[in-house]
Design goal:
CATH architecture of the domain at 1-86 in chain B: Up-down Bundle
CATH class of chain A: Mainly Alpha
Largest sheet of chain A: none
Oligomer: heterodimer
Order of helices and strands of chain B: HHHHHHHH
CATH architecture of chain A: Orthogonal Bundle
Number of domains of chain A: 1
Number of strands of chain A: 0
CATH topology of the domain at 1-86 in chain B: Four Helix Bundle (Hemerythrin (Met), subunit A)
Helix content of chain B: over 70%
Helix content of chain A: over 70%
CATH topology of chain A: Helix Hairpins
Structural class of chain A: mainly alpha
Strand content of chain A: under 5%
Shape of chain A: elongated
Radius of gyration of chain B: 22 Å
Shape of chain B: extended
CATH class of the domain at 1-86 in chain B: Mainly Alpha
Chain lengths: 101, 179
């Protein structure tokens, strides 16, 4: 282990914060989904770094499962985006207020 | 000593490019450019996995993320023909107000953990020799023995997501199902 695990934690925290900021400030719903992908990748970096640090392959298996969930999330999310675009012909999240109280 | 420097250099390069492209994903206005910088980030995350001795995950990262997920994103972006006039959300000031304390908390937590981390470098040295040289073989064995049930659940998740995506994106499923 040449690089200390805290460096990976700092990198992962920076990427995760970038994803949070992207989810909060973007209006394009596709950019919001891309920011969610950023956050998933940040957690994956953490998992792999600790898997190497603790010499336990369970972390890599969990990255595998996170990847599966990411694929499912993208498929369903993009289907929802297509359905939304069909009904409102826009992908700006500020125009979707049907379920807003 | 030389290997230590090389490892640091590789980590610095990969981490720098990952952070830069992550910021670009959020900052660029055109969704196509955002998706392409996310592609660059995926490749560098795969490189980081290789330096962490997770070769199988590096290959899966490139095949699944860069090959499948990102192509799906680009397909939808080009299908919807999004204009480039996307601005930031109206509540970005509130978002900045929320994120700034979060960033400070991360800084404080990480500074505390770095300062108080014990020199635990003796334990991984002896465990390193028990690590199998074949990463894919080890992952396959642990995936089909210890994590067999989550593996089956993952396949079920993929099936449900596929059916859900087809039903959501189908044009008029409600009219055609009630003749």
């Amino acid at each position: 282990m040449t690089v200390p695990v805290s460096y990976y934690l700092i990198l992962s925290a920076m990427v995760f914060l970038t994803g949070i900021v992207g989810v909060l400030i973007r209006r394009n719903i596709i950019a919001i989904l891309l920011s969610v992908e950023l956050m998933l990748n940040a957690t994956n970096i953490n998992f792999v770094a600790f898997s190497e640090h603790l010499q336990d392959l369970g972390g890599q298996v969990f990255v595998f499962f996170a990847l599966t969930v990411a694929a499912a999330e993208v498929a369903v999310g993009l289907a929802i985006i297509i359905a939304l675009h069909r009904s409102k012909s826009s992908i700006n999240v500020e125009e979707f207020n049907l379920m807003k109280w | 000593m030389k290997g230590w420097i090389v490892g640091q250099l590789f980590f610095g390069y990969f981490a720098g490019v990952i952070v830069l492209t992550a910021v670009l994903v959020v900052a660029l206005k055109n969704p196509v450019y955002s998706a392409l910088s996310l592609l660059v980030m995926f490749f560098h995350v795969a490189g980081l996995y290789v330096t962490l001795h997770a070769e199988f995950l590096a290959a899966v990262q490139i095949i699944v993320y860069a090959g499948a997920i990102l192509v799906l994103y680009l397909f939808v972006v080009m299908l919807l023909n999004v204009k480039g006039d996307d601005r930031y959300h109206r509540q970005w000031r509130i978002a900045a107000f929320v994120c700034l304390p979060l960033l400070l908390e991360f800084m404080v937590l990480l500074a505390g953990s770095v300062a108080s981390s014990p020199p635990a470098s003796a334990a991984p040295a002896e465990a390193a020799e028990t690590a199998t040289p074949n990463n894919t073989l080890a992952i396959g064995e642990i995936l089909f023995s210890t994590y067999l049930f989550p593996f089956e659940v993952a396949s079920l998740i993929l099936l449900v997501a596929m059916i859900g995506a087809i039903i959501l994106a189908k044009k008029d499923v409600m009219e055609s199902s009630t003749p």
